[in-house]
TrEMBL record, chain A:
Gene name in the database record: nuoC
Gene3D superfamilies: NADH:ubiquinone oxidoreductase, 30kDa subunit
Topology of the protein relative to the lipid bilayer: Peripheral membrane protein
Source species of the chain: Phytomonospora endophytica
Protein name: NADH-quinone oxidoreductase subunit C
InterPro entries per UniProt: NADH_DH_suC (IPR010218), NADH_quin_OxRdtase_su_C/D-like (IPR037232), NADH_UbQ_OxRdtase_30kDa_su (IPR001268)
Automatic annotation (TrEMBL), chain B:
UniProt gene name: nuoD
Record function comment: NDH-1 shuttles electrons from NADH, via FMN and iron-sulfur (Fe-S) centers, to quinones in the respiratory chain. The immediate electron acceptor for the enzyme in this species is believed to be a menaquinone. Couples the redox reaction to proton translocation (for every two electrons transferred, four hydrogen ions are translocated across the cytoplasmic membrane), and thus conserves the redox energy in a proton gradient.
UniProt keyword annotation of Metal-binding present: no
UniProt similarity note: Belongs to the complex I 49 kDa subunit family.
PANTHER family: NADH DEHYDROGENASE [UBIQUINONE] IRON-SULFUR PROTEIN 2, MITOCHONDRIAL, NADH-UBIQUINONE OXIDOREDUCTASE 49 KDA SUBUNIT
Descriptive protein name: NADH-quinone oxidoreductase subunit D
Membrane topology type: Peripheral membrane protein
């Protein structure tokens, strides 16, 4: 296996110093009207430059957040084990609360979220990854928690680099995260420190690479005509 | 095992790990006789991935002591088809065609969950026409019935009630007929689309639904006459595969399994969507926390689903089934022909002969698709097997940046070791079946 990120690797010392800078996204822009690449844009809109608004998605929403969101964030801030730096940003979008946290604090925050009597997020619905190739901390792990007592939902999000993809495992708090963290490791190569058995789950054991990363090479389809090949979907001319 | 006593169904070879048997049939006793009981007490049985009672390609590795399971491990991934990855290279509308193939026994749920996510990203949740919402609810409840019928059929078969299998598939066929008359397809319909439905429910479909509502209560009594009083069914299910509420929550188990443990957590009631708060129905619970409880809960859920479908039929009023916004709504008026669903002839006449602008509009929306503002949402619905969550991320393009399905089959399967360890090997089958896993959904 050429895979560099083995599950039992320990975190290199002195890494998470500049995390707060790394969580900030980069500007990204797109040229032309149709996102054409590799061939001339004959539409006449080739000089058009469009800045994507997604780049500024990680700026905290100003208070008040509305609904129950202020209360949840306030209670989290009251806890001594959660320092100011561990909560990177609080984003409220489309009626959903997202709390961006540091990758080495996720376990403590989950424990507080589960055990605090005024939070009581008993159920961890989903753990999964998202790859944002344009950002420095490109690998995001997203946790969806539900409080059945208060009928609330919250999303926790951590971001790590592809070079140092270490996130604390939350299996000791939410045993249901076991398979979901394995899937995120399998698909994105995020290493969950403290997971009891971090192995591949959907792909074969001897697979190399992490298929859900955006830079994972896709296969084309060979055609039985003079060695031609239908290019993989990300290289075809298409609207982007 | 000497050459004379070599069992034709249980080939064996010696390895460094000990003797390995490949059992394909025959008598279990003849296999166990061949093992020296003093030196080889520990028996590791590999059940699956092609075992008939594993609901697809699920593999269970069981460590046995006699007939008691001491350790159970679940291996999944044999049906992984990369649906989530594929979605990232298709438009948002085409995504419906992929997600419907995840949990193939409950396709309407996958489609609805996904479309609710896309609509929330677009901010058009409130604009979905009333008729579209009513038909969505109706189709979801019919799908819940058909999914529970398959559960009843396969579980009955696995526990020895072969008649139940025939009965379950027989009634499910009628629901598939309803789906066919609405969408042209029996499974993987891609009927629910972002913004509404692919096409309206025809009168013929509605007539079939009414007939089904008339027939089904009688069939339910038939199933209960067959199973509930049967001593074998009771022995095989009562007190088997126990999992209480705290176990369910720790392992993330939702749906009928959680409700069979006594917690009335049903997203249709607790976090309503598609207007479920306006329907009159009860949440079925039981406090057995065993296979019997899950059987009772599912039977009751079929009855409650019938109630909801009845209310849907009553309140169904003529109207549009797609949002009015022409920048999002699928441009083609679809019609069901003898060869399946296609563009209606009137629409083809309009864009090819009458309006150049309509043709451009059609072309742009079908080839390029609509743009979805950047952001992320999580929508969850109460599917037949538990909470089906959709985490959809957009970066502002015409294609999803990422779609993750929180599949109840995948999450619930983690509970098998907790249910099976310490129990008999036969109860592994009953316990696994009671989770109702569908591997297409689990592995995606």
């Amino acid at each position: 296996m050429t895979d560099k990120s083995q599950p039992n690797e320990s975190r290199p010392p002195g890494e998470p110093a500049e995390l707060s800078e790394r969580v900030q996204p980069q500007e990204s822009s797109q040229k032309g009207l149709f996102g054409v690449s590799g061939t001339g844009d004959t539409s006449g809109f080739g000089g058009l430059v469009r800045h994507t608004t997604a780049a500024s998605a990680l700026v905290s929403t100003p208070r008040p957040f509305g609904e129950y969101f202020d209360e949840v964030v306030d209670i989290l801030n009251e806890h001594d084990e959660i320092s100011e730096e561990t909560i990177k940003a609080v984003v409220v979008d489309r009626g959903e609360l997202t709390i961006h946290v540091a990758p080495d604090a996720i376990r403590d925050i989950c424990r507080v979220m589960r055990d605090d009597e005024s939070l009581r997020f008993e159920l961890c619905n989903s753990v999964s990854g998202v790859d944002y190739p344009d950002r420095d901390t490109r690998l995001h792990v997203v946790y969806h928690l539900t409080s059945m007592t208060y009928r609330r939902r919250v999303r926790l999000e951590v971001a790590v680099t592809a070079e140092d993809p270490h996130v604390d495992s939350v299996t000791s708090v939410y045993p249901t995260a076991d398979w979901q963290e394995r899937e995120t490791y399998d698909m994105f190569g995020v290493v969950f420190d403290g997971h009891p058995n971090l192995t591949r789950i959907l792909m074969p054991d001897d697979w190399s690479g992490h298929p859900q990363r955006k830079d994972y090479p896709l296969g084309g389809i060979p055609v039985e005509y003079k060695g031609a090949e239908i290019p993989p979907p990300n290289e075809r001319r298409a609207y982007k | 095992m000497s050459a004379e006593t070599q069992d034709q169904y249980a080939d064996s070879r010696d390895t460094t790990e000990g003797r390995v048997f490949t059992v394909t049939g025959g008598d279990w006793e003849s296999v166990t006789e061949a093992i020296d009981p003093l030196s080889q007490e520990r028996l590791v049985v590999n059940m699956g991935p092609q075992h008939p009672s594993t609901h697809g390609v699920l593999r269970l590795v069981l460590e046995l002591e006699g007939e008691t399971v001491t350790e159970a491990r679940v291996v999944v991934g044999y049906l992984h088809t990369g649906i989530e990855k594929n979605l990232e290279y298709r438009t948002w509308t085409q995504g419906t065609t992929f997600v419907t193939r995840c949990d193939y026994l409950a396709p309407i749920f996958n489609e609805t969950g996904y479309c609710l996510g896309v609509e929330k990203l677009l901010g058009i949740t409130e604009q979905i026409p009333e008729r579209a919402n009513t038909i969505r609810v109706m189709m979801m409840e019919l799908n819940r019935i058909s999914s529970h019928l398959i559960w009843l059929a396969t579980t009955g078969m696995e526990l020895g009630a072969l008649t139940m299998m025939i009965f379950g598939f027989r009634e499910r066929e009628k629901i598939l007929d309803i789906f066919e008359s609405a969408s042209g397809l029996r499974m993987n319909m891609a009927y629910i689309r972002p913004g509404g439905l692919s096409q309206d429910l025809p009168a013929e479909g509605l007539a079939k639904i009414k007939q089904f509502l008339k027939d089904m209560p009688g069939h339910l009594r038939e199933y209960e006459d067959l199973l509930s009083g049967s001593a074998i069914w009771q022995e095989r299910t009562q007190g088997v595969a126990y999992l209480d509420v705290s176990g369910c929550l720790a392992l993330g188990v939702t749906g009928p399994v959680l409700r069979s443990a006594g917690l009335a957590w049903d997203l249709r009631k607790t976090m309503p969507y598609c207007g479920y708060e306006t329907y009159d129905f009860d949440v079925a619970t039981h406090n057995g926390a065993d296979v019997w409880g899950r059987y009772m809960v599912r039977m009751e859920e079929i009855r409650q689903s019938l109630r909801i479908v009845e209310q849907c039929v009553e309140r169904l009023e003529p109207g549009p089934v797609m949002v009015a916004d022409k920048k999002i709504a699928w441009p083609a008026q679809l019609a069901l022909g003898t060869d399946g669903l296609g563009n209606s002839l009137n629409h083809v006449k309009h864009i090819m002969g009458q309006s150049m602008e309509s043709l451009i509009h059609h072309f742009k929306l079908v080839t390029e698709g609509f743009r979805v503002p950047p952001g992320q949402v999580y929508t969850a619905i109460e599917a037949a097997r538990g909470e089906l969550g959709v985490h959809a991320v957009s970066e502002g393009g015409t294609r999803p940046h990422r779609v993750h399905l929180r599949e109840p089959s995948f999450i619930n399967l983690q509970a098998i070791p907790a249910m099976a360890e310490g129990a008999l090997i036969a109860d592994v089958i009953a316990g696994g079946a009671s989770l109702d896993p569908v591997m297409g959904g689990c592995d995606r």
